Amino acid sequence: MLGAIGSFSAMAVAGRELGPILDTFEIMMYRSFFGVIIVVALAYGSGTWREIKTDALGLHFIRNIAHFAGQNLWFYAVTVIPMAQLFALEFTSPLWVIVLAPFILGERMTRVRVTAAVMGFIGILIVARPDMGGLNSGMIAAASCAIFFALVAMFTKRLTRSQSITCILFYLTVMQLVFGIICAGYDGDIALPGWS
Q: pTM of the prediction?
């Protein structure tokens, strides 16, 4: 978990620094390119390459579209609002899981879950303070990315019933690389990052 927190924090700082140089699609494209290299190397190195199956490509596609949309909204938000607001709004994702899980995963909505969701939402409002400076595009993007990340969590849970982690990560990086190339290159201009 400490490694994940460190990685997410480094990604936030890197995303903010890259924002003026690359658009969000280009950031996602480069991130996915290096992700494919890492996942393929680890799959071969650990002997899990054979676990990559094609029997759930539709669900992988839906999951990765949601992740791509959420991540692009996140990279946009990280460049235009304070990180405290971004993280507060991003962390509404578990609240959205509580709300959406009965529809996607068939889980029951209990009184305890509803109470936790309401308390969590109040906490988010205290930290995000949407009344300070008014609602803006960055806050809307951050709040929207939380909904997409909730969908990603639920579709990932469904995928783990039949797919290995290697398979999920492989399709995550490969599909998002393709999405990134398409979206970054639609205008015929893909910027190269500088060495710094």
A: 0.83
